[in-house]
C-alpha cells in the first residue's frame, strides 16, 4: 500500500479539530450596552453548564459584571432569557445567591437572618416561565423560549405574574420595599450612598446560580438567543458567546505553530 506523506501542519490542524469537536457541555455568554436612561454601561455574563449530581442537570450562573457604583432602577439586572436546541422540558429546581443580600433588613421580618448569610435561597423570589413563541412588550422582544426573572414583568407577553418557583417550598423572603425591584442583581462596585435604589429593597450581590432538571437524553448544550433584562419594564440586550478557555488555548497553539512553520519555510540566504 502506498504511503501518503502528511505534513506536520496537517497533523496539527487535524489534532485541533479532534480536540475542539467534542460535545459541548458548557457555554458562556456576555456583553454590554450603554443604558441611555442612566448613562451607565451595563455589563453581564451567563455561564451555562451540564453539572452531574445524582443526575445530570443544567446549571446557569448569571453575573452582573458592571463596574460603576451609582445605580438607578434601570441598571438592576432582573432577568435572563435563552433558547435551548430542540426545546426540551426543563424543571426549575434551585436558585441561590452565593453571597448575603444587600439590604438584608429589607427582607420579611421572619427572613432577615436568611438574607444575612450566604448562600441565600431565592427560589421563591425568582421565577421561571416557558413560552414557545418568545417574549415581547413595547420596549423588549426576544425569540428565547425560556425566561427567569425577579420582577413580575407584567408588561411582558406572556406575563411573569405567576411564574414557577425554583424548588419545592422555597422560603418566602418577601420585600418591605418595592416588590418589582427587590432581589435584582447589582455588581460588586455597587454603592448605596451614590445610588438611587431604596435601602428598603433587598438586592442580590454579583451573581445568582440556577439549577434545572433535564431530560436524560440531554448530553450536550446548544444554547442561543441569550438576552439580559434590566429594570421592571423591562429593557435589555442580546449577549454574544465567549469562547471556552480550552478553545482559546488550542487556537493560540495553532497560531504559534504557524509562526514557527513560517520561519522554518522562509528561504535561507545563500553565501558566495
Protein architecture, described:
This protein has 272 residues and is of the alpha+beta class. The chain has one domain. Helix content is 14%, strand content 32%. The chain has three helices and 17 strands. The protein has a seven-stranded antiparallel beta sheet with strand order 6-5-14-3-2-1-17. A six-stranded antiparallel beta sheet has the order 11-7-10-4-15-16, with no helix packed on it. A two-stranded antiparallel ribbon has the order 8-9. A hairpin with a 4-residue loop joins strand 8 and strand 9. The protein is globular. It starts with 7 loop residues before the first helix and ends in a 7-residue tail after the last helix. 33% of the residues are buried.
In short:
This protein is α+β, with helices and mostly antiparallel strands.
Coarse shape: globular
Distance between the termini: 44 Å
Number of helices: 3
How do the strands line up in the largest sheet? 6-5-14-3-2-1-17
Unreliable spans: 1-21, 246-258
Q: Briefly note the structural class of the backbone.
A: alpha+beta
Helical content class: 10-25%
**Over all CA atoms, what is the radius of gyration?**
23 Å
How many strands appear in the DSSP assignment?
17
- What string gives the helices and strands in order? HEEEEEHEEEEEEEEEEEEH
Overall pLDDT confidence: 84
Assess the beta-strand content as a share of residues.
Answer: 25-35%
Biggest sheet details: 7 strands, antiparallel
Number of spatially distinct domains: 1
